[in-house]
């Protein structure tokens, strides 16, 4: 495993660990999800370069579009939840109390 692979794997793993352990605020969960998507995007964009294939893959561009949609939806949920609940703490979002 090269150091480039190790950096991609460690960035994704640290983002997943951040999502698993720091679940107090919605904004921190959204940032961890965004960093996971960014590390996967960079890894997929570098893959044809490392394998020396001349073909162009549409997967990184499609993934980047989906991550932009995910970020926009997450920020809209953040604004809506802050307006209704008064904060972005995740323990306030109990679906049984609706």
UniProtKB/TrEMBL annotation:
Its EC number is 7.1.1.2. The chain crosses the membrane at residues 6-22, 29-49, 61-80. InterPro entries: NADH_UbQ_OxRdtase_chain4L/K, NUOK/Mnh_C1-like. The keyword Translocase applies. It comes from Malurus melanocephalus (red-backed fairy wren). Gene3D superfamilies: 1.10.287.3510. It comes from the Eukaryota. GO terms for molecular function: NADH dehydrogenase (ubiquinone) activity; oxidoreductase activity, acting on NAD(P)H. This is NADH-ubiquinone oxidoreductase chain 4L. Keywords: Electron transport, Membrane, Mitochondrion, Mitochondrion inner membrane, NAD, Respiratory chain, Translocase, Transmembrane, Transmembrane helix, Transport, Ubiquinone. It is found in: Mitochondrion inner membrane; Mitochondrion membrane. Pfam families: Oxidored_q2 (PF00420). Coiled coil: none annotated. It catalyses: a ubiquinone + NADH + 5 H(+)(in) = a ubiquinol + NAD(+) + 4 H(+)(out). Core subunit of the mitochondrial membrane respiratory chain NADH dehydrogenase (Complex I) which catalyzes electron transfer from NADH through the respiratory chain, using ubiquinone as an electron acceptor. Part of the enzyme membrane arm which is embedded in the lipid bilayer and involved in proton translocation. GO terms for biological process: ATP synthesis coupled electron transport. GO terms for cellular component: mitochondrial inner membrane; NADH dehydrogenase complex; respiratory chain complex; transmembrane transporter complex. It is a multi-pass membrane protein. Belongs to the complex I subunit 4L family.
